[in-house]
Amino acid sequence: MDPIMHKAHAADLVNAARIRAGLTWAGLAAAIGAAPVWTTAALLGQHPMTAAQAGVVVEMLGLGDDVAESLQQQPNRGSDPAVMSDPTIYRLMEAMSVYGPALKALIHEEFGDGIMSAINFKADVTRRADPDGDRVVITLDGKFLDYRW
Amino acid sequence: MDPIMHKAHAADLVNAARIRAGLTWAGLAAAIGAAPVWTTAALLGQHPMTAAQAGVVVEMLGLGDDVAESLQQQPNRGSDPAVMSDPTIYRLMEAMSVYGPALKALIHEEFGDGIMSAINFKADVTRRADPDGDRVVITLDGKFLDYRW
Amino acid sequence: MDPIMHKAHAADLVNAARIRAGLTWAGLAAAIGAAPVWTTAALLGQHPMTAAQAGVVVEMLGLGDDVAESLQQQPNRGSDPAVMSDPTIYRLMEAMSVYGPALKALIHEEFGDGIMSAINFKADVTRRADPDGDRVVITLDGKFLDYRW
Amino acid sequence: MDPIMHKAHAADLVNAARIRAGLTWAGLAAAIGAAPVWTTAALLGQHPMTAAQAGVVVEMLGLGDDVAESLQQQPNRGSDPAVMSDPTIYRLMEAMSVYGPALKALIHEEFGDGIMSAINFKADVTRRADPDGDRVVITLDGKFLDYRW
Amino acid sequence: MDPIMHKAHAADLVNAARIRAGLTWAGLAAAIGAAPVWTTAALLGQHPMTAAQAGVVVEMLGLGDDVAESLQQQPNRGSDPAVMSDPTIYRLMEAMSVYGPALKALIHEEFGDGIMSAINFKADVTRRADPDGDRVVITLDGKFLDYRW
Amino acid sequence: MDPIMHKAHAADLVNAARIRAGLTWAGLAAAIGAAPVWTTAALLGQHPMTAAQAGVVVEMLGLGDDVAESLQQQPNRGSDPAVMSDPTIYRLMEAMSVYGPALKALIHEEFGDGIMSAINFKADVTRRADPDGDRVVITLDGKFLDYRW
Amino acid sequence: MDPIMHKAHAADLVNAARIRAGLTWAGLAAAIGAAPVWTTAALLGQHPMTAAQAGVVVEMLGLGDDVAESLQQQPNRGSDPAVMSDPTIYRLMEAMSVYGPALKALIHEEFGDGIMSAINFKADVTRRADPDGDRVVITLDGKFLDYRW
Amino acid sequence: MDPIMHKAHAADLVNAARIRAGLTWAGLAAAIGAAPVWTTAALLGQHPMTAAQAGVVVEMLGLGDDVAESLQQQPNRGSDPAVMSDPTIYRLMEAMSVYGPALKALIHEEFGDGIMSAINFKADVTRRADPDGDRVVITLDGKFLDYRW
Amino acid sequence: MDPIMHKAHAADLVNAARIRAGLTWAGLAAAIGAAPVWTTAALLGQHPMTAAQAGVVVEMLGLGDDVAESLQQQPNRGSDPAVMSDPTIYRLMEAMSVYGPALKALIHEEFGDGIMSAINFKADVTRRADPDGDRVVITLDGKFLDYRW
Amino acid sequence: MDPIMHKAHAADLVNAARIRAGLTWAGLAAAIGAAPVWTTAALLGQHPMTAAQAGVVVEMLGLGDDVAESLQQQPNRGSDPAVMSDPTIYRLMEAMSVYGPALKALIHEEFGDGIMSAINFKADVTRRADPDGDRVVITLDGKFLDYRW
């Protein structure tokens, strides 16, 4: 009896196979008919996939059933703090440190006392052309949940 | 000679006067002709205002020149970690912990090696009606900066 | 213009007046018609009260309008880590450290991938008589939120 | 002479065998006649099992005596902080950060100076149907221990 | 309405008056008929006193009713980590770091799976004459609590 | 040339052999004629053993010379912070957090400015029968060392 | 007898007077004949000034002798970690996190085993015009110190 | 399918081969026609190389295609905090702690509100002869980015 | 009744008076007939002084009885971590991080299993002339304490 | 191509061979003609050795060329914080926490504003006979470096 492959190891194998096959995250997302951010997060270990989704991925990438089994497991979510200091990710954290209290104030002003759900939630990242340099546009879209006793 | 009023104290006074006068952050933003997230962040101490902007704010709120002087100063930016664990703000941090590596992967896939600037950057928060419950939509929009030696 | 009284100071005043008047948290909750855990949390600074609720409290306790104003403000929620190591509170944290992964596994088994909301949420604490020593029974009751993209 | 299998490794093997056999945590609990939260916690490494309990589990799951031996050992209890930031578990921690001081105040009001034991303690998690969405109900039930010199 | 005097401030006043009056902690303990460690801990803010005990203390020390009121309050227990690195206290922590796992193993061997209560608990510190230098003997005496579901 | 076996690995082997042979820590202590807390701490890696002591242990347990060699090495003392949050050990730490400043005050009152040595030190753990439930009694006994320049 | 004014308070007064007088850090540096980075660091509390330097500064800024006395004191050097996360400062830290090991490798390759002194050290910040946007050029210039026993 | 070699392992192999071949970091930089700091950082895992650059390196060093593949991957940037306390690197951090606020003030004075980019950025380290001991001169050169909404 | 003056405040007053009177730490030490490191540490709050020593100091410095009372109190010893990162102090810590394990190995080799006491301990700092630059020589001299059960 | 042996592994092998051969650190130091603290630190991984020194060591200890190669590499210096809490090392840290500010004050008084170098530095540990118990005498001897711009 082997334990189920750790999701971090499955992610390493998916990434290696993806690069060697010349495939993109967006292409994998299209193949399983899911959003790119969701699909990438799932393949990096943050969401469980269905058996069908996992099956498409391992077939496209020439990986084994052990990878497919791993991709379907319930994850422990969240990232190692060391990863969060990578500059590309850190800028997102810095933006929250600078603008978080302002976003909180405006959420309360518009919606009342509550939060934007991070569970009933989706995210997208797109390119917006700009003559001064193209821009990364990240959209965070979550259901408002009011504090309700 | 008094030191310049600390921005946290100015923010407390702005907030108290704003609430007692029945004004919104959005209303203050409209009065100075700036974006709501920028204006709220500036009044909470994260951006310097121009003398004209600060003057409009203190006149609307019946505050003194010491507040206006404070609002114009260069800040030390960032928020106390204790504030970042407020549930409304924490959900943003959690989303970055769950989706940050996926956003990084997709930024690299679309733009190459680089970051979304948090300096040449704007943010917005809006309400999107939804029959299952309205949604908070936060847009982060920053210039792509490639690692360029 | 004075800043709004800090919620920690309002809580100190409410607590002092409550003790000197011989009133209980449960009694204050009954007076405003709200649940005991909600009311106590609100008076300790974790929830905003309505003007009516705050008015009842300050009248019962002989406190001023500045306290009532403070009680109505939107809080930054959460407790100082130093407080969380008080033995009465720490036992709750220890229980989560010992049983948290089991509770997570059982939530997923019963409900699927998601969480118990801490926003659409209520809590209660009661006494249950037991010949071996009475027991504290804490109920946490939150809406299940499934990860839904 | 091999060292005794580490409980984390035993938990991985139990979980893998459980999933591949299509068994639930609740089913394993029923098989050994113990509560679901206790059983799940024990199989994840937080409680020692009796030889009889461990024997039933490894027979149901087709695992070896080395797993059974491991399940009977005295644990070092507690979870890695990284696990505690998983959103499903974090919501429990957040609830304690928001409501912990209120629960402490109400325990003292009802019982006097003391704690809810986390040792003479049991927990349960159930589903409560609700037209606005079913709810997770977690009950923490511990003996009151007064500070007694 | 003044808030109740903070227990740290009451402890500072008790200590100052005690020193200026030439009284010992042991003498205060004898006066209220309680154990020295309990009394000292209570006066330093870790236990609530009864009104009678607090009354004896403030009368002996010439302190006011505000101190007596403070001494009777329910504390948030525990010490600032900075205090725990004082060498006299640190040696106790170091002993636990070196011998804690051995004490745990022997508690389990003698009593089974459980803990020594820190609530139903008493402590004492005495001098034991020794020709090689007198010794500090600290006794920790707590009820065994077995893990009991 | 192999490195000397790490003391944590030796401790795992000692513990496994001890359990499989049905021996107690107290029994091993008696066999080498040393105190139970010292012996258990030494076998868990906190003290070096003499060659004779190590020889008795490995012979009783059927372990190899590599274990005996490891048991004789000078340790780096102290425990991983993760271990210190095990509830059985944590109660000892909590007691120090609650009573540490009181113990310090009483040590100074009785002995003057100094510490209880944690080096010229011994500890014991015993059971004391009590009709309300037997008690764990831990004695810490260290030479007083005065601050002496 | 008043204590000497804390350097952080002196820095606040210097900064307030500087802004109100319309003076620059560079102008203050020129007035005392010292480098801009050194002067600014000294006025912010990181270096002691001579009596002559401090006298020039307080006269230019209309501040009192208490400020001049403070500016001459030996500092405890270093900045609060909260300040180091300001984005303008953080980029310097991030550059060290990304390039620090490379700088170390090249220092060792060119100079041997040793360090760049941060004591026998000077720093400068200048503007370099660039058609793609002007650049900040920071020079760190410290004596090489070889590990020399 | 093997995962792609971890960049830390590739760096270890590059470094071992470089030393055994008697090559310098500067020599490798010259061979690929890139700056020494950039090249060293890239080979230590902080920048992706082009296939051509990686090919030159592995051929010079007699390493395999698996190393070349690793060197081309997008990194997670940043260094382990343990590495940052090496004295050679720590002096750079200390300089930022002592001079960071001064550099920030002078950047704002010369350029306005903004930062020196750490992305559109280059660094160099050179030797400057000095009769009192040669000096390490590190130049940090980044584009100024103004806070621009 | 005032609390006893905090030792940090007494140290600030001693230091201010010392500087204004043009006295040295060494001079104060000579006046009370104690070692310079001991005296300076005591005046900075790390040791209690006798009434006679405190009396000499406050008379030399023109300070009040409240300072003398404070200097005689039992301290909570140790320094704020922020102070330990001052470069002059940090070098001592760095030396311990680099040489600590070697010092430990040599202490064990020469003395056996034990420690250098930090209680029965004295320290000195002297200047040693050297043509390459004078040297700071710090001597740490503590009684060897063997682990003795 | 193998990576160069990690210095921690080389240190483990050196230590094992040293113990089995009955050699002392001091003996190894004498054999290579270097100071005992330097030699021990170098063999534990804190300094690079020359090829000649490394050659003598591996020949005396019967170790391989891979160890000799490792001993010659440039280290990343510093010790794991876990090691620093070993009691023998911790006493050194505690002494710095208690006496560090006093040593700093006396260094400034004797030498002016600057530091004791930890690079141009040597250390020694000796035994001093004392009728009350022999003493460990540690000498830290570093060049004074003044803050020199």
Question: Could you characterize what this model shows?
Answer:
The structure is a homodecamer of 149-residue chains. By secondary structure, chain A is an alpha+beta fold. The first copy, chain A, folds into two domains: 7-71, lambda repressor-like DNA-binding domains (434 Repressor (Amino-terminal Domain), Orthogonal Bundle), CATH 1.10.260; 85-146, 2-Layer Sandwich (Cyanate Lyase, Chain: A, domain 2), CATH 3.30.1160.10. The first copy, chain A, has helices at residues 7-20, 25-32, 36-43, 51-61, 65-71, 81-84, 87-111, and strands at 114-128, 135-146. Chain A has a two-stranded antiparallel sheet with strand order 1-2. The longest helix of chain A has 25 residues, at 87-111. The first copy, chain A, is globular. The model of chain A has no long low-confidence stretch (mean pLDDT 98). At the A-B interface, helix 3, helix 7, strand 1 and strand 2 of A face helix 3, helix 7, strand 1 and strand 2 of B. Strand 2 (135-146) of chain I pairs antiparallel with strand 2 of chain J.
What tags apply to this protein structure?
Cyanate Lyase, Chain: A, domain 2, Cyanase (chains A, B, C, D, E, F, G, H, I, J), two-stranded antiparallel sheet, EC 4.2.1.104 (chains A, B, C, D, E, F, G, H, I, J), 2 domains, homodecamer, 2 strands, 434 Repressor (Amino-terminal Domain)
> What Rg of chain A is obtained from the alpha carbons, in whole angstroms?
18 Å
Biggest sheet features of chain A: 2 strands, antiparallel
The protein's oligomeric status is homodecamer
Cα(first) to Cα(last) distance of chain A is 47 Å
Largest interface: A-B, 65 and 65 residues
Strand order of the largest sheet of chain A: 1-2
**What percentage of residues of chain A falls in helices of 4 or more residues?**
40-55%
Task: Report the order of strands and helices of chain A.
Answer: HHHHHHHEE
Low-pLDDT stretches of chain A: none
